[in-house]
Protein 1
Amino acid sequence: MPAQENMYKPLRARVEKVIPESPAIKSFVLLPEREFAFRTGEFIELTVNGCGEAPFTPSSSPLEKKKIEVTVMKAGYVTEKIHELQPGEVVGIRGPFGRGYPLERFYGKEVVILGGGCGFAPIRSLLYNLIAEKDKFDKVTLCYGAKTPEDCIYKPFVDELRKVEKFEVLRSVDKADEGWEEREGVVTVLLDDIKVNITNSVAVVCGPPIMMKFGTFKLLEMGYPEHDIFLSMEKNMSCGLGKCGHCMMGKYYVCKDGPVFTYEEIKDQPDIWK
Ligand SMILES: Cc1cc2nc3c(=O)[nH]c(=O)nc-3n(C[C@H](O)[C@H](O)[C@H](O)COP(=O)(O)OP(=O)(O)OC[C@H]3O[C@@H](n4cnc5c(N)ncnc54)[C@H](O)[C@@H]3O)c2cc1C
Ligand code: FES
C-alpha cells in the first residue's frame, strides 16, 4: 500500500553508507527524512537529482523503518549515477509499490529460495523476515548462484545465515577459482543437492530472466505445483502506479499486480522471461 500522500513526490533520503558488494554491485544504506515502511518484495523508485529514477526492491529488513538499504547493479545511465553516490548525498525515494511476498502462504512450510546475481536483493529482505518469524516455518533453504566467487554478494550476511537454526545455504558459481569450496555450475544444480518435502513446500525464484526461466522449469520437473512457485518479475517501469502502462505483461501491470506473482498466474502471459 502506498505510504506517501503524493505518490509522485519523492521523500528525501540521505546516503549513510556505501557498501561495495562485487565489481558491479553496491549497496546503499539510506536514511529517509521520516520513517519508511514496506513489505518484503515491494519496491521503491529511487531518484538521483538531475538524472532520473529507477525501481529497486529494498534488500534490508522490512522490520527496520528508520533505514532502508538498496543493492544496485550497474546496468545503464541511472544505475551508473547511483554507483557514484557518496555518503552524505541526498536522493529521493517513492513508494513502496506493488505486491510483495505473501508470507502467510509460506507459514508451516519448507521454503526453498533460488536466487541469482543481484536477485539476492529482494531475497535478503525476505530472509530477514523469515528469520524474524522462524517459528512459523519448517525449514528455509537458500540456493544462490553467481558468475564467479567475486560476484557473490552479501558474504557477511551469508556467514551469519549459516549459523541460524533451520536455515541452510548452498552456493554455486559458474566458474570457480582455487579458493572456492562450494558447488560449480549453474545455480539450478543446487536443486539436485537439496532434500525437500515438496508436498509441504513453496519455492521462491529471483534473478536474471534466463535463470528465472530454467529455475522455474526445474522446480516444475521436481513436482512443485504452479501455484507454489513465487516469482519476482522485473519489467521496465516508469510511474510505479499502474498508470503509464510501461510495465505491462499481458493483462497485468507488474508495478501494481506484482512484482511478485505465482507461476500459475503469469504462465500464459506473453514474454514473461524477457
Ligand atoms: C520491481 C523491480 C525491482 C528491481 N530491483 C532491483 C534491485 O534491487 N537491484 C538492481 O540492481 N536492479 C533492480 N531492478 C532493475 C533496475 O530497475 C534496472 O537495472 C534499472 O532501472 C536500469 O536503469 P538504468 O538507467 O541504469 O539503465 P538503462 O540505461 O535504462 O538500461 C540499461 C539496460 O537495463 C535494462 N533495463 C532498464 N530498466 C530495467 C528494469 N526495470 N528491469 C530490468 N531491466 C531494465 C534496459 O532494457 C537496458 O538493457 C529492479 C527492477 C524492477 C522492475
Ligand atoms: S510502471 Fe506505469 S503502469 Fe506500471
Protein 2
Amino acid sequence: MTIELRPLSYALGAEVRGLDLTNRCSDADWRAVHSAFLKHGVLLFRGQKITREQHIAFSRRFGELDSHESLPLDRDRTHPELLMVTNDAKEDGSPSNSRYTGQMWHSDLSFTLAPALGSLLRAVAVPPVGGDTLFANMYLAYETLSQRMQGIVDDLHGIHVPERKNAGLSAHWEAENRRLNPPVAQPVVRVHPETDRKALYIGEKVKCFEGMTPEESRPLIEFLLRHATRPQFVFRHQWQADDLLLWDNRCTAHLALGDYDPRHRRHLERTTVLGAASGHVANLESIA
Ligand SMILES: O=C(O)CCC(=O)C(=O)O
C-alpha cells in the first residue's frame, strides 16, 4: 500500500492517508511512517477502528512501551500500556482523575528519568465541538532564539514536577504522586537522538532552573513558554472519533485545551513509547 502525506499546518504535523491499522503495517509502510514522524513531529491517522491490542501492537513498532508506573491511577487495569484520558466517571460515580489530563503545556513523562519518545493517543469518543489539542514545534522554538539566548538556555536544567492542573486528587494520592515522582532536572535544550537537531525542552511543569530560585527563574520560563507556543509554531488538532494521533515528545510540546462541554463524553486512550534516559533527580534545595 502506498501512503500519502498531507501537511496539517506550517509548523508541524501531517496526516497519513492510505494506511489501515487493523492490518499489520508492512515494513515498507512503517519505514515511510517513521521517516514522516521524524520530519513532521505529529502524525494523524483518521478513521482507525482498531482494538486496544492493535493500538498497542502498532505502538510497539516505535519502541518499548511504558507501563505507566509513574501514573498508576490512570492506567487501564488489564493493559498497563494504556493510559486513560477520560471524563467517564469512576465505578463509584466520582469524577475521573484524568478529566483534566494535559491541560498544561508539557512533553510526556518529562518529570521522570525516562521521558517519552512518542505517544499514540486514540480517540474513542469526542465531544461534538471542542476538546482540541495544541502542539508546538520545539525545534522552531529553539532555532528562532537569538544566539545569545541559545547560549544561555544551552547551559540550563529545568526542574520538572509531576503537577497537574485541577487534578482534584485526594491528599493521599497527591502525596503518592510526589513520592513516586520526585522532582527531576532535565536539560532545557535536548539534542534529538535521531535527527541531531536541538529542541527546547520546556513546559508548565518546570518550576525553576537548577541552581536558581523560582523568582529568578520565572521570567525566563514564562518568556520561553510564550515564545515556544506562539501561534506560528503551533498546530491545533480537532478530534474525530477513531483518530489516532502520534507525536514526538522529543521535539514537540502539547496542551489539551479543555474547550468543551463536560456533559459530553471525551474518552481517549494513550500508549507511551519510552525514550532514552535523561536528567537526574533534582537537588531539592534549588526549589526551596
Ligand atoms: O487529551 C488531550 O487532548 C491530550 C492529553 C495529553 O496531554 C496527554 O496524553 O499527554
